Amino acid sequence: MVLPNSTIGVFGSGQLGRMFAIEARKMGYRVHTFSPDTDTPTGQVADLETSAAYEDLDAVRKFAQTVDVVTFEFENVPSKTVAAAAEFVAVYPRGEILHTTQNRLREKTFLARNGFPHAPFRHIKIVDDLYRAAREIGLPAVLKTAGFGYDGKGQQKLRALGEIDSAFEKLNGSEAVLEAFVEFEKEVSVVCARDRQGNFTHYGVIENAHENHILDVSFAPASVPEKVFAEAVEIARRVAETLDYVGTLCVEFFLTKDETLLINELAPRPHNSGHLTFDACVTSQFEQQLRAVCGLPLGATEFYKPSAMANLLGDIWESGPPDWAAALADPRVKLHLYGKAEPRAGRKMGHLTAVAETAPEAVALVRAARANLVRKA
Ligand code: AMP
User: Fold this and answer.
1) Is 304 helix (H, G, I), strand (E, B) or coil?
2) Nearest atom, ligand 1, residue 265 CA
3) What's residue 148's pLDDT?
4) CATH of the structural domain 120-180, one choice from 2.40.30.20, 3.30.1490.20, 3.90.170.10, 3.40.50.720
5) Cβ(140) to ligand 1 under 6 A?
């Protein structure tokens, strides 16, 4: 067990690490973050910030010797970085899980081999693979690079065979997967956690709305039939068990019109759709991650009330500095900012949360608060 006053190492230094560090500090832990950057969202609230390349394995080994356990908040930490840290200290979730989930092909192969529901996909290495896959799966379909993809980056929608050559060119030699386009009714996620003894907790089903492939608004509980709710949680539990997972995990699903759940993606870490747990639940997804990686018992996941979260992207800054006071005019609205200096379009700068008697009311609160942030000309 890693007890309070010990030091937790975190690979990655974004907002997920920041919120994790805040929870860790609340419980008396120290945090040491490692990433190539400086003055980062995590570094600002951590005790120590190492700025070095993930490929600098000497720096990684040095870092690992200053901490009592290692976790990560950034999914694309190279496997050899995690392996170098693991020479000195336990890493949770295991590096092998990171290796599987950081590559779409490996992740989808894992889902297929273990009988988890997912959209049909094919491995694309040469342009002929793409022609064959398009014929077998049908169009429209989505071409995704296998590695380093998130928030719709590295994705192209293919509508006709005539688009194949140029889409393949754009891959620039990267390995890819072609995935059937899913006419989903809605997108939902299950954020859950598993400890070293195999105990499992979850936050039920969260409903997610995306804008331009980036998460925009989440709310809980999702508006889905009980049967779908139970099935989504059961699938998440089986994924966590199959991976022998330790930590917080998010399983993202498409829900089709005929109420079929298909796994879109796994995130081996706290997830944007679970940010509402910070204000709405007895134990947040970040505290749960902390408890799991430290070998402490997991906390209760119940919601005090239905809740919603709206992301704040850099685009909001385009019309001038946001009007924070106007956004907080309703006392039920909470503000989370990540300490990022430069607001770029599409960059996640923070989020708003609210609790209310019903989830739609909470959604209305965060949407209205976000609209009030934007200065009127
Ligand atoms: P991803 O980075 O794969 O999670 O994709 C980001 C978003 O793009 C998803 O949340 C969906 O809104 C959309 N998307 C991705 N793959 C598909 C698909 N196969 N069919 C329909 N929409 C998709």
Assistant:
1) coil
2) 4
3) 73
4) 3.30.1490.20
5) no
Tokens of 306: 């239905």
Structure tokens at 130: 């793409």
pTM over 0.90: yes
Distance from residue 155's CA to the centre of ligand 1 (Å): 8
* Best mutation site among 213, 255, 257 for ligand 1 pocket (most ligand atoms within 8 Å of CB): 213
* Sequence ranges of the domains in the chain: 7-91, 120-180, 184-373
CB count within 10 Å of CB 147 equals 15
CB 174 near ligand 1, within 6 Å: no
Q: Which helix (H) or strand (E) holds 58?
A: helix 57-64
Interatomic CA distance for residues 265 and 257, integer angstroms: 19
> Measured between alpha carbons, how far is 55 from 147 in angstroms, rounded to an integer?
17
User: According to the model, what pLDDT value does residue 377 have?
Assistant: 67
Residue with the nearest Cα to atom 19 of ligand 1?
181
Flag residues of the chain having pLDDT under 50: none
Residue nearest to atom 3 of ligand 1 (CA): 152
The token pair that represents 331 in the structure block: 């006392």
* One-character DSSP codes across 157-186: EE-SGGGHHHHHHHTTT--EEEEEPP-EEE
Look-up of token digits 């392996």: 83
Q: Give the separation between CA 6 and CA 28, rounded to whole angstroms.
A: 8
Ligand 1 centre from 213 Cα, in Å? 7
DSSP sequence for 59-92: HHHHHHTT-SEEEES-TT--HHHHHHHHTTS-BS
**256 touches ligand 1 (CB under 6 Å):** no
pLDDT at 153: 72
What pLDDT does 296 receive? 98
So what's the architecture of 184-373 in CATH? Answer: 2-Layer Sandwich (3.30)
CATH number of the domain located at residue range(s) 7-91 in this protein: 3.40.50.20
CA–CA gap between residue 345 and residue 284 (Å, rounded):
28
Dist CA 26 CA 196 (whole Å): 22
Strand partners, 160: none
Determine whether 129 is exposed, middle or buried from the number of CB atoms within 10 Å of its CB (0-12, 13-18, 19+): middle
